[in-house]
Hints:
Elements: H1 4-15, E1 21-24, E2 37-50, E3 53-67, H2 72-88, E4 99-109, E5 115-128
Parallel strand pairs: 1-2
Antiparallel strand pairs: 2-3, 3-5, 4-5
Amino acid sequence: MATRKQIREAIKTVIAPAFNRVYSGWRNSADPRDFPCAMVFFDNGQPDRTFDGYDTEASLSIEIWTSSADSIDDALDLLGTAAKNLIEQDETLGGLIDGISLSDFGYDRDPESLAGALSLTFTVTYHDED
C-alpha cells in the first residue's frame, strides 16, 4: 500500500541522477540555475474500492526543464529518455506500486528564451492509502 507522497518521493529518488534538482510536487516556475531539473506530481487518478482499501490507476507527470543553445528538443529528449530508462529499471519502485508505464508526452517551449519543458505522463497502478 502506498501514498501519493511516497510514490512522488520514490520517483524523485530514482530519477535524481539525471538532474541537478528534482522537486517532489508541481511548481509554477523553474529556476534556470537548477537546469536541468524535474518536477514529479500527480495530475489525477481513479480509485476502485476493494475489500481492503482502494486499487488506484493514476496519472503521474514528470515535467523536465532545461535550456540549450543548439536544440532544446534534443536536450529534452535526452533527459526524458534518461528519466524513463531509470524508472524502467524497477517498474514497481521496490514493491511500492503495482506498475508504471509511459502513456503520453508533450513539449512546452519558451519563444523568448532557449528554455523549454518536456512533460512525461505515466500511468501508475497501486493500492492506495490516501
